[in-house]
Amino acid sequence: CVSYFTWGAPAAQRATIEALCSANLRDSMRAASQYLVVTLSLASLATMAGTGFSVGERRAHRLGAMGWRQALAFFVGTDASRLPWVVLSPLPFLVIYTHLVPLRLVWDRWYVAVCLLLWSYAGVAYTLQLLFGYYRAFPAGVVVCTGMVIFDGINLPPRVWGPCSFVPYLSINRWAIENLYLGVVENYAHKYDLAPALAEYEFALGRQATAYAAMAGVGLWW
């Protein structure tokens, strides 16, 4: 559908194609964003959980034997060692992805969103490894990732949560999906009516900076 619109279509078919796109673009792109975020989050967990904290470091952390300065230095040092992977790995991924999928991406938006997603899940991986050790960190991470999917507010939008409508906004996935989704569909805003999709998923145009800050904030919390 998107490839027809991107590369052009015969005039006789254009009206039919546009009608199909306006009805289906939001659903297919939402599903693609959701699956992509899950895949990238698991990749981050698998990579970051291999940091290899020593038994002594884990014991000191559990017993609260680390002072706050030592804990901060410990976090910064561990995090800095993984930053090259966080910064560089999205580049080949996006190059390959854009050649496989006929979508017009907002490159800078997708790049920052993917970097923040990988980095945010680093905190999850570090925490789980300190709590459960190297071999159990990734299985525990899969459970956390599943929880992020359940509480991402996509299949169950915030409005259905009642007094707990703030919960989806605490999910890393929620903000990553919104950024990736809008980073594609905004290209077609002049052609298709995005209002139904935005209302359904409770996304908002032009708040990518808020989404970036939320992902960074949740990552720091972890």
Structure in words:
The chain is mostly helical and 222 residues long. The protein has helices at 2-7, 11-48, 55-62, 68-88, 90-100, 107-132, 134-150, 172-185, 195-201, 208-221. The radius of gyration is 20 Å and the shape is globular. Residues 2-7 have low confidence and may be disordered.
Helix content: over 70%
Strand content: under 5%
Low-confidence stretches: 2-7
Strand count, sense and barrel status of the largest sheet are:
none
Q: Could you spell the SSE succession in H and E letters?
A: HHHHHHHHHH
Q: What is the average of the pLDDT values?
A: 78
Report the end-to-end length measured between terminal Cα atoms. 39 Å
**What's the number of helices?**
10
Shape: globular
Q: What's the SSE blueprint?
A:
Blueprint: H1 2-7, H2 11-48, H3 55-62, H4 68-88, H5 90-100, H6 107-132, H7 134-150, H8 172-185, H9 195-201, H10 208-221
Short description:
The protein has 10 helices and no strands.
Keywords:
single chain; 222 residues; mainly alpha; 10 helices; 0% strand
